[in-house]
């Protein structure tokens, strides 16, 4: 029986392990932390009986992931739940805009922009599976759906600021900008429309669901597949060199490029070592987990039913905030993402005490305290929320990196989403998963298609690695 070792038990590492185990390989997963999951863990971070996701929280990409659907995570205990509204973007005074799973309902509530919204996202959402089959692969591949890829490319390549100005309403523009800001990169840059366009089109087809029981349910399902097929998972073991690993036919590394370079040492080809050493990281996250009695008293009615709420104000505010953060400037009014997972999954709450998950975009390696900035943004759009807070916990960029070494400087997407790095991650070559060391592959969020809980980096890398065995 062929053997495989996977270093790192985040969603990409576990997906790679599951794929190889299903193919009949003897798989061992080695994780440095005591608990597997990387960015997909859930804990009682503030008080007993109230459950917060430790990083990833809402999962449009996971619900649409070809890897997860092929592996059948629902057969291993994963259940999706859906809030009444996917995403809300409030503006001052109680106005705003919202993304509903129904494109018709979304368009109807966008007024003058409704017709264009429908024409922009209707064809993409109808063909989203074909688009994803191209988008979630490395750049250099032979497309099976070239027309779908071209349709998406026309929407994805411009800066998000250009795309946002296709609409007239301030709410519509802000809604698109807030979703595009998930890229954690200045929105005036080319290709920054890609994330917003993709996540909206996915939302209209798959929604922005919540994993019942927390994001750890995704981890548990992937681990269950590995174990079901005879694999082993070891925790609390930090690998510091490839030379310490037992002999195996395949080694998969769910690590940053720089960490791979450290483990490989002089085994790594010089060209690859230089590329990995030049890997750039983007802005960081500062997280605030709250326990709030009776929930948040939003002025905007749609925000009271939304699983995700983006607090950033207008398009111009978001553009300036993201630009400041990329330049190392901490904004007075940061862009804040708020998760209200309990609205779809009541098991997260304890009576009338509900978990509120929130994080702000802050400069890479930010060493200050963004708590007041996050609370001020909450109070701006939900006056009186402070009086309902009964407990909180913070996680700084440094805490994020300690918690998960792949989050260098607090960058939770494991790399800057600059156009060049997005196109040629993690190094220029025909096979982005191959390290140049025979049998050793990188499968982290630094590989195509990038960050997010979808497992496609691990899936693509595992398929590549397995093909190398059977040639």
UniProtKB/TrEMBL annotation:
InterPro entries: FAD/NAD-bd_sf. It holds the Pfam family NAD_binding_8. It comes from the Bacteria. This is NAD(P)/FAD-dependent oxidoreductase. Signal peptide: none annotated.
């Amino acid at each position: 029986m062929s053997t495989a070792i996977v270093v790192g038990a985040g969603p990409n590492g576990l997906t790679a392990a599951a794929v190889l185990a299903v193919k009949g390989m003897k798989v061992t997963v080695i994780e440095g932390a005591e608990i597997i999951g990387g960015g997909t863990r859930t804990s009682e971070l503030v008080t007993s009986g109230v459950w917060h996701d430790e990083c990833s929280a809402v999962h449009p990409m996971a619900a649409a992931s070809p890897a997860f659907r092929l592996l059948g995570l629902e057969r291993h205990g994963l259940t999706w739940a859906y809030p009444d509204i996917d995403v809300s973007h409030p503006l001052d005074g109680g106005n705003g805009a919202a993304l509903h799973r129904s494109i018709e309902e979304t368009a109807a509530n966008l007024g003058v922009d409704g017709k264009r919204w429908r024409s922009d996202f209707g064809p993409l959402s109808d063909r989203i599976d074909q688009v994803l089959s191209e988008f979630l692969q490395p750049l250099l591949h032979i497309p099976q759906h070239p027309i779908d890829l071209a349709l998406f490319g026309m929407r994805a390549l411009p800066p998000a600021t250009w795309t946002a100005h296709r609409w007239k309403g301030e709410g519509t523009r802000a809604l698109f900008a807030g979703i595009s800001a998930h890229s954690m990169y200045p929105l005036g840059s080319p290709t920054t429309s890609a994330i917003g366009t993709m996540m909206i089109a996915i939302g209209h087809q798959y929604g922005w669901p919540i994993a019942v029981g927390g994001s750890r349910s995704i981890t548990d399902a992937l681990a269950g597949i590995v174990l079901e097929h005879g694999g082993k998972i070891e925790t609390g073991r930090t690998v510091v060199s490839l030379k310490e690993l037992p002999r195996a036919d395949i080694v998969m590394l769910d690590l940053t490029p720089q960490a791979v370079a450290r483990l490989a040492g002089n085994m790594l080809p010089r060209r690859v070592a230089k590329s990995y050493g030049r890997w750039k990281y983007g802005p960081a996250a500062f997280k605030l987990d709250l326990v709030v009695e009776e929930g948040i008293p939003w002025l905007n009615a749609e925000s009271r039913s939304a699983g995700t709420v983006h607090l950033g104000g207008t398009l111009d505010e978001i553009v300036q905030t993201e630009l400041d953060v990329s330049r190392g400037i901490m904004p007075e009014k940061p862009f804040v993402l708020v998760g209200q997972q309990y609205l779809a999954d009541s098991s997260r709450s304890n009576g009338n005490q509900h978990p509120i998950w929130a994080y702000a975009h802050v400069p890479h390696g930010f060493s200050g305290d963004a708590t007041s900035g996050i609370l001020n943004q909450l109070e701006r759009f939900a006056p009186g929320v402070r009086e309902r807070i009964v407990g909180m916990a913070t996680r700084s960029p440094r805490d994020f990196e300690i918690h998960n070494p792949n989050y260098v400087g607090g960058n939770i997407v494991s790399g800057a989403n600059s156009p060049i790095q997005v196109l040629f991650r993690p190094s220029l070559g025909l096979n982005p998963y191959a390290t140049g060391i025979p049998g050793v592959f990188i499968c982290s969020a630094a590989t195509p298609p990038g960050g997010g809980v979808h497992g496609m980096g691990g899936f693509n890398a595992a398929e590549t690695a397995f093909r190398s065995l059977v040639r």
